[in-house]
Amino acid sequence: MTATDSSPIEAPQFSITRVFNAPRELVWRAWTEEAELAQWLHPFGVSTESVSIDVRVGGRYRYTMTNNETGEEFPTGGEYLEVEPIDRLVFTWGEPDAPIDGAPVITLTLIPQGERTELVFHLRGYEGKAGDGFVYDGWDEALTNFGRHLAGELD
What we know:
Blueprint lengths: L12 E8 L3 H9 L1 H7 L5 E8 L6 E8 L5 E12 L3 E5 L12 E9 L2 E9 L10 H16 L5
Antiparallel strand pairs: 1-7, 2-3, 3-4, 4-5, 5-6, 6-7
Helix pairs in contact: 1-2
C-alpha cells in the first residue's frame, strides 16, 4: 500500500511590516507612480533608472537597478495581479518579461492608522530573514528608502 501526502507544499516566503508617517493615499502613490518609484525602489548602494509601470490587472512593470560602484545592472519586472487602490497591490517579481506562472509574488497591504499607514510587505517565492544579505535584506533596505522618501529625505 502506498501512502500519498496530499498536504499542500508551503512556498518559501517572508513578510516585513512597517508603519509610515503618511496617509495611505501617499503610500499608494509612492508605489504606483514612476517618478516616485525611481526615488526609492532599490537597496542601499544601488540606484533605479528606466522605470515603467502600467498599474492595472494584467499590466506590467519594469525597472533597472544599477550598482553604484560596479555599474552592474539588474533588470527587474513583473505583472500586476490585483490592484485595489490604497488597500492592496499584488504583483509578480522577477525578470521583466518572464511568465507569471511560478514567479515570486509580492502582496502589499496598506492598513490605515489615523494619519499613518501600516504596510505589510509579503513575498511568496523566496525564503528570507534579517541578515541574509540577499532578498530579505534588499527589500528591508528598499523599505527603509521608502520611508526616507515619504519623509522627504531622498528628494
